[in-house]
């Protein structure tokens, strides 16, 4: 993927601190990161290294202590709540552990919700992509079910179809394969990779799993709130090696 265009997301010298001067935690300490169109980025690092904080800040779900986050050409650190909500709805898809499915809507309606909220009916190609997602994610028999009638893994797949369906520019995924069996997990990762390659969607995925990270174009390693390493696409074995080396240094 060539990086000649301006980034879809830019994190510039971001700090995020919690607590007061006597008891301060730097969850992020001077982090800068660019995400380009069609790029699939994995974020890895030990527990407490700042992965979730970074993803939440990039998605406008959390504020910075200092620094800048620019999505498309908008500095979101200066946006009000309403404008931020609007930007999130139009540009961002979320695949989070708390699936946030609407309990009163069936599977199809949940998947179509981004179109509904945006007030536009899907085009023919969008409908075809949604149909492909439903099929690939093994949800064809479930489209009329309510979320509580589904298993955890099935709910996660609905959340994935919803996040990818309207082809938002940016997708944030927090351990997207955490609840899935290994075959479905691999299919979901292949879908994410296809969304990046074929639809130019940019994906930022937090994971502890070297196999999941091996689907990404690059892997960013965090430790103690700082980016300590970055690698191009690597095999699961190589990624395990980088993680081990990081632990030895720590
Ligand atoms: N609301 C908060 N108040 C105080 N400290 C916080 C808060 N949220 C996060 N932290 C601290 O910031 C640091 C980074 O947390 P974060 O959740 O981003 O880590 P993580 O890498 O996602 O961890 P894990 O892999 O365990 O989910 C941790 O030391 C955590 O305790």
From TrEMBL:
UniProt cross-references to Gene3D superfamilies, sorted A to Z: P-loop containing nucleotide triphosphate hydrolases
Record-annotated ABC transporter domain positions: 9-249
N-terminal signal peptide: none
Alphabetical UniProt keywords: ATP-binding, Nucleotide-binding, Transport
Gene Ontology terms for molecular function: ATP binding
InterPro entries per the UniProt record, alphabetical: AAA+_ATPase (IPR003593), ABC_transporter-like_ATP-bd (IPR003439), ABC_transporter-like_CS (IPR017871), ABC_transpr_LolD-like (IPR015854), MacB-like_ATP-bd (IPR017911), P-loop_NTPase (IPR027417)
One Pfam family it belongs to: ABC_tran
CDD domains: ABC_MJ0796_LolCDE_FtsE (cd03255)
Protein name listed in UniProt: ABC transporter ATP-binding protein
């Amino acid at each position: 993927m060539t990086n000649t265009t301006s980034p879809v997301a830019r994190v510039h010298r971001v700090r995020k601190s919690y607590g007061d001067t006597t008891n301060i935690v730097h969850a992020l300490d001077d982090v800068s990161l660019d995400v380009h169109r069609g790029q699939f980025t994995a974020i890895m690092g030990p527990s407490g290294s700042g992965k979730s904080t970074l993803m939440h800040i990039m998605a406008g779900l959390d504020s910075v202590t200092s620094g800048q986050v620019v999505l498309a050409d908008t500095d979101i650190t200066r946006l009000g709540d309403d404008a931020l909500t609007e930007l999130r709805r139009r540009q961002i898809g979320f695949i989070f552990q708390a699936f946030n499915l609407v309990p009163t809507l069936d599977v199809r309606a949940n998947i179509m919700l981004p179109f509904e909220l945006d007030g536009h009916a899907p085009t023919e190609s969008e409908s075809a992509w949604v149909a492909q997602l439903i099929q690939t994610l093994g949800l064809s028999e479930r489209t009329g079910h309510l979320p509580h009638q589904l298993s955890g893994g099935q709910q996660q797949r609905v959340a994935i179809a919803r996040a990818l369906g309207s082809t938002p520019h940016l997708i944030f995924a927090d351990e997207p394969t955490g609840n899935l069996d290994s075959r479905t997990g691999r299919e979901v990762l292949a879908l994410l990779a296809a969304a990046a390659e074929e639809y130019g969607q940019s994906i930022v995925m937090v994971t502890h799993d070297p196999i999941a990270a091996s689907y990404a174009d690059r892997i960013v390693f965090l430790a103690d709130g700082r980016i300590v390493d970055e690698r191009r696409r690597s095999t699961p074995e190589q990624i395990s090696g980088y993680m081990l080396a990081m632990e030895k240094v720590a």
